[in-house]
Structures are given as structure tokens and as C-alpha cells.
């Protein structure tokens, strides 16, 4: 007799890796370019340019999913699981949104990214945020930035070490620590987007286009501490608590579903005996 088949994440092929790197580079540029822009840059002064950025980022996000499918990482069963998890995540988000940063969807992204891998996690995080925006009416120029940030959040869980061997309490603690830290990282990078589109409000923590990078970074740190620390802390604590409380059960369920779906199984054809 053989033991249970080892659960492996959804395969990430070379084209999907290239697509992820490309969307990551362009995403970082989209978040960070105002810090390097001159004071006379029209982009900072014209928020109406955001729809063009939305169109570019949306095409790139779709490209990641298409590349993953083309590399054989997403078959019909994986797409079905993606849809189910994205729907659950989108439904979870409104339960706490707007209340001290309590957003229960984050723990689901951590656990799903861990079991199903970084490529699946990135697509799941992005699609979930898109579906959530449609569900809650939160569609706006910030949406592609939220999609990128949530994609990175879920992808990071899939990149954690010991995906095939680490189990039990050690894995749970690893995921809880990651969820706590990454929840702050998500809030910080979204702060960067919001902070740079409302420059020069006469405050010592406001973004000033064209100022030296180190001065703006000091202001940005002060801005995060003054405006969003409590919000990000609520998100981080809730993610940690839910990961520790629900994690063992949900990890088993996700691994059982992945094992039955056999995402990594290769087709085998038997030659009939004569």
C-alpha cells in the first residue's frame, strides 16, 4: 500500500513567472513613481489619469491568469476552486470593512496562498478584491492598486518555506506571523497610493512633489503612524487570530480538496493488452 499522495501547489510555469515579474515591476512603478516625480509633474496634479493606469494594470492582471492557464497551472478544476474561494473572500470582506480595519478575508488569502501556491495566490487575491469591489460598490481608481496589493499578499503566503514538509503547530505559527506582518505591509503600500494623490496640504506629514526622496519618506512614515496605525493593527490582529483559530481545519479542507482535484497529476494513457 502507498501513503496519501503529497499535496503540491498549483504549478507555476515559465510564462506565468515572467508575467508575474512584469506585473510586479509595473505595479511597483505605479505605486512609487510620484516619489521620484518633479514638482511640476502633471501626473501628480491630475487624478483623472488614473483610469488609464487602471486599464494597463487590469490587462496585466488578466495576462497573469492567461499565462498560468497556458502553462497548464490552471485547469478546469483549479479555475472552479478559484471561483469558489474568490466568492467566499468577496463575501467575507464586507463583514468587517469600515470598522477599525477588521477585514476577515485576509486570513483566507493567507491559507489559500499557502496551500495552492504563489501563482494561484496572486490570481486569487486580485480576483477576490475585484469581486469585492463590485459587490460593495468600491469601484474607483484605487481598485487596481488594491488588486495588486492583495495579489502580492496572497502570493507571499505561497512563497513561505516548507510548503510540502512543514505541518502542525510550526506551520500555523509561521502563517500567523506572516499574516500579522503582511497585513501591515498591505496597509502601508495602500497608504502610499492615497498619500501621493493628495499632495501639499500644509501639514508636516503631507506629500510634497519634487522634494528629496528621503524627506518624503520621513513624512510618509509619520503619516502612517498618525493616520493608519490603529487601522492596520486591527487588520493584523484579526488575521492572526483567525489564522490560529480556523487555520488547522481550513488547511486540512483545502489540502483534501487539492488532493482530490489532483491539479498536478499528469495524464497517462494505457495501451490495451493484446
Rg over CA atoms: 20 Å
- Shape type: globular
Number of continuous helical runs:
10
DSSP strand tally: 0
End-to-end span in angstroms?
A: 28 Å
Helix and strand string, N-terminal first? HHHHHHHHHH
What number is the mean pLDDT? 80
Unreliable stretches, pLDDT < 50, 5 or more residues?
42-46, 267-274
Determine the strand fraction and express it as a percent band: under 5%
- SS class: mainly alpha
Give the biggest beta sheet.
none
Helix content: 55-70%
Describe this structure in words.
With 274 residues, the chain is mainly α. 69% of the residues lie in helices and 0% in strands. Helix 5 (105-116) crosses helix 7 (143-158), helix 5 (105-116) crosses helix 8 (169-196) and helix 7 (143-158) runs antiparallel to helix 8. The longest helix is centred in the C-terminal third of the chain and has 33 residues, at 229-261. The two termini are 28 Å apart.
Secondary-structure map with pairings?
Layout: H1 14-36, H2 42-45, H3 50-70, H4 76-92, H5 105-116, H6 118-136, H7 143-158, H8 169-196, H9 213-227, H10 229-261
Helix pairs in contact: 1-3, 1-8, 3-6, 3-7, 4-5, 4-6, 5-6, 5-7, 5-8, 5-10, 6-7, 7-8, 8-10
Q: How would you sum up this structure in a few lines?
A:
The protein is an all-alpha fold.
Supply database-style keywords.
69% helix, mainly alpha, 274 residues
Amino acid at each position: 500500500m502507498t501513503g496519501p499522495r503529497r499535496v503540491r501547489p498549483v504549478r507555476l510555469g515559465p510564462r506565468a513567472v515572467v508575467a508575474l515579474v512584469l506585473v510586479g515591476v509595473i505595479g511597483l512603478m505605479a505605486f512609487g513613481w510620484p516619489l521620484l516625480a518633479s514638482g511640476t509633474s502633471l501626473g501628480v496634479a491630475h487624478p483623472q489619469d488614473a483610469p488609464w493606469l487602471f486599464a494597463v494594470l487590469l490587462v496585466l492582471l488578466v495576462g497573469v491568469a492567461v499565462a498560468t492557464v497556458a502553462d497548464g497551472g490552471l485547469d478546469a478544476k483549479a479555475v472552479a476552486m478559484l471561483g469558489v474561494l474568490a466568492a467566499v473572500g468577496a463575501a467575507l470582506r464586507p463583514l468587517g470593512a469600515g470598522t477599525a480595519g477588521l477585514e476577515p478575508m485576509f486570513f483566507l488569502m493567507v491559507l489559500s496562498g499557502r496551500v495552492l501556491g504563489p501563482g494561484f495566490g496572486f490570481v486569487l487575491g486580485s480576483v477576490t478584491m475585484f469581486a469585492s469591489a463590485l459587490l460593495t460598490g468600491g469601484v474607483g481608481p484605487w481598485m487596481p492598486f488594491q488588486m495588486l496589493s492583495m495579489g502580492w499578499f496572497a502570493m507571499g503566503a505561497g512563497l513561505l518555506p516548507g510548503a510540502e514538509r512543514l505541518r502542525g503547530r510550526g506551520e500555523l505559527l509561521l502563517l500567523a506571523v506572516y499574516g500579522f506582518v503582511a497585513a501591515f505591509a498591505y496597509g502601508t503600500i495602500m497608504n502610499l497610493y492615497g498619500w501621493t494623490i493628495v499632495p501639499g496640504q500644509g501639514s508636516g506629514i503631507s506629500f510634497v512633489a519634487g522634494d528629496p526622496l528621503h524627506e518624503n519618506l520621513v513624512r510618509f512614515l509619520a503619516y502612517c503612524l498618525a493616520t493608519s496605525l490603529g487601522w492596520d493593527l486591527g487588520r493584523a490582529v484579526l488575521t492572526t487570530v483567525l489564522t490560529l483559530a480556523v487555520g488547522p481545519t481550513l488547511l486540512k479542507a483545502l489540502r483534501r480538496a487539492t488532493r482530490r482535484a489532483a491539479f498536478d497529476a499528469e495524464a497517462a494513457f494505457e495501451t490495451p493488452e493484446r
